């Protein structure tokens, strides 16, 4: 059983590649690595190439020197003379060995310098592209999977450099050996090839099988990893123990791990079979190779010294071949992973938020939502249908409604995070000029909006960074950080911590502290205030605050609006909406009612009036008589007075 069957249908193009195509893809991938290396650090790359070519030359020279030594040793004459004559070749051999060692050390130093730089370049390119993808696109499972798969290949480029170095080194030395062998006797070359081909075939088969298995099981493995993560997460610790959730999760882990083990066993059996077949053919070829050598020597077709050199060359090449096979195997896998990253980066660019667009009017006098409908990718029901409303600077616009009625979705549309499926969002200027969200410069839209989401992120960073991350497009200004914190009533709390603004607001780190839910909400509020944008969208900003803090928070939002900010307030605390300038009541994705608090309370049987009275009743006010309750409205049946 796989965690996600749909993923099985998605296979990368390289997974279907045959041996020939793989061989032709290798140089292309090496070219990619070379390009990345060239962009990252030219000097290191040139040093690396020189070291590799140098090692190839020293290898070939060494083999020629071995031949020289053997020729003298196998010649007729007294042994002291033969040794003396072979001395120059022995000295060359010694110099070549020292040279090879120096070049190998240089190569290691250069690749060590280059590898992290390449990884950084590829990762930055991938993550930059991914963070620019339209939010709606990331919600499409097919795109999400591609983007997720790309994550595994960000360090492949780094490993590919190391492997390219290894493969180039072995290839150069094998080509050098082959050239020396061919110059000694032409028949030795096809023998070398006969040993190489079965091993190459086995490597490709093994790599492709492992890759496909990993792709098919990636979601399953992710789920297993997530299960384990929960077991040690501090915020899950309570339920893990009190609800015995840990027992359930561990059982799930064991079951899922057993499935992985079954797959591992299948893979190991298949790999062993491939290795056996490849090894058998390669062994037969080696046998033939030595047999032929024997025949050449005994029939007098080959001098004994050349035979000795050939044995050294074949042994070198076979040892090199084993390492080549291993490295090609890994290179092929890395290639597949890397091509996923390339594909993800390409896909991300295809679905990126446009970098250009019409400038917004300055100043913006209103954002007008006109007959907007929105359906989440893959959803069967629309989250919003035919919604119209207006948000203006200097006003608090409240969005209220039942759970799932579409308030947060509407906030995402107002923030420019998702584009409507139908309808338009106009950013209007003072003189009637207006720009539609799809045509607008989205970067400018984002700069105009401060956001406090219902599920705001709790960054595992310092308190200062948690506020300053609210405006990642400008340098941190601690005076502004403090002022935003003051506005969110969290300044004295942070400044009272042992490490003040440098405290890491997550336990477990050095300087780490644990904040309460309400303190986190205040810190997130400070973040949205630090954005200092003309539009502020706050989604349940007081859900974790105590009564005093809540009242103060709403008063501050009111003050902010009075000072000219357009505040969009999403809340279930209807006491706070009494002072809103305009309230939109959402019901099943439609605007059911809108108006001021007084207007809405004056609507007999209205949804707002009903919700308000029920809340008020908790504080001792008489509940609404049953006959006043509104009838449930469904999507497709808008309230007759809904804003259009
Ligand atoms: N990312 C998503 N993908 C698919 N459907 C979603 C997504 N987010 C919300 N929905 C659906 O859209 C509808 C509106 O959700 P939304 O979060 O906008 O409601 P809400 O009014 O903010 O609710 P609440 O008061 O509970 O916060 C719901 O039916 C919800 O299931």
From TrEMBL:
GO cellular component annotations of the record: plasma membrane
Protein topology in the membrane: Multi-pass membrane protein
Residue ranges of coiled coil: none
Lineage of origin: Bacteria, Bacillati, Actinomycetota, Actinomycetes, Kitasatosporales
Designated name of the protein: ABC transporter ATP-binding protein
Database matches in PANTHER family: ATP-BINDING CASSETTE SUB-FAMILY B MEMBER 10, MITOCHONDRIAL, ATP-DEPENDENT PERMEASE MDL1, MITOCHONDRIAL
Annotated organism of origin: Streptomyces buecherae
Keyword Calcium found: no
One Pfam family per UniProt: ABC_tran
Sequence intervals crossing the membrane: 44-66, 86-106, 160-180, 186-204, 276-296
